[in-house]
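Pinned message: reference record for Isomerase
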Amino acid sequence: MSRITEIAISHHRLALDPPFKASWDGRPRTAFDATIVRVRDDEGREGIGSGDLMKGFEGHEALFIGEDPRCLERHYEVLSHIDFHYGRCWPLDLALWDLAGKVMGEPVWRLLGGRADRVRLYASSGVLRAPEAMADQAERYLEEGFAAMKLRFSASAGGRAGWREDVRALEAIRARVGDRMALMVDCNQGWRMPWDTSRPWTFKEALTVARELERLDVEWMEEPLHREDRAGMRRLADATAIKIAGGEMTRSAAAFRDLIAERALDVIQPDVALTGGITGCRRIALMAREAGVIFTPHSWTNGIGVLANAHLTAGLGEAPFLEYPYDAPEWSLERRDFPLARPLTHSQGWLVLSEAPGLGIVLDEDRLRTTRIG
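Predicted structure (C-alpha cells):
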C-alpha cells in the first residue's frame, strides 16, 4: 500500500520583459511567480501541484506523512481546516490527485468519471488593447480554431477611460468577427488588488453596461458587482438576458452552495488551484449541475492549474468551455507554462488530455532550478 513519505514546496520566479500589463492590475508585472508542490510516496512516485503560495502549511506535514495518498476525502478535510486557520493550500490536493492517479495507473480525468478526454476552450485575454488591436487578436483566435473568447474591461484607474471605452473595444471585435465567435466579458468588479481602493460599479451602472452587452450578443458578464453582493447579482440576473458569471475568488464550497441556492449567478467559476482543490470543486460542480447552473472553471494560474481544471471538467463533462489564459505576446503559452517541459498545446480550440497516469505533468527541472527563489 502506498504511503506518503515527503512533501516538498518550492517557489519560482520568471522575469517578464516586456512586462505583462494585466487589466485587473494597474501596476505592470515584471515577474511571474509559481509555487510547486511535490508529494512523494514510499515507492518513489511523485505527485505535482501548483497554484497558491501554500502559506500556513509549514508545520502541518505530519498530518499527511504516512497516510495513503488515495484517501483524498480525508486529505480534503484536513486541508479545509488549514484553509480556515491559515491559508489556501489547495495545490496539495492537486498533487495528491496526481499521485493517486499514478498509484492506480489512471489519468485523473478517468478517475473523476471519465466522461471525456478533452475540453473545449475559450481564449481568455488579459491585456487592455486598443479596439482595432483587440479585433486583430480575436481574428488570430479564430484562425487557431477557438470558438469563443473573453475580453477584459478595466478594473480601475490606469486602464481604459471607463466602461464606454471598453464597450468600443467590444464593438470592434463584434464588427470584425460577426457571429463566428461567442464573446464573454470580464467586468473586473468583483475584487481589487490590495493597493487598489477604487469602488466597484453600483447596480445601476452594472445594469447600464448589461444593456450594452445585450446589444452586442455577449454570452456572459463576469464579476459585474462586488463579490459579496449576492442580492445585487440576483437582481442583475433577473433584469438582463445576459448570463451573470463569477466566483473565481470565492473560497469555499459552502459559499458556492449559497450562490447556487440563491440563484445569484448563472455561471460559477471556481478554480481547483484556489478553491477546494479538485476534491472540493468536484462537489461544487455537482451542486451546480443539480441546480441547473453552468460550471466553467477559472484558470489564471499556470499550465499546471490549467491541466488540473481540464481533468476535472473532462471527467465530469460539465462545462461548455474551459478558460484558457492566452494573450500573446504579453501572456504567451511559454510564459504561462514556464514550469512545464513543454507548453500545453491546443488544437482547433480543444485541449486533449493524455492517457498518462495522474495529471500528465512533466516539469522543466532545469528551468525550475534557475528560477527558484525559495
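Pinned by admin. Summary line: Residues 4-105 form a domain with the Enolase-like; domain 1 fold (CATH 3.30.390.10).
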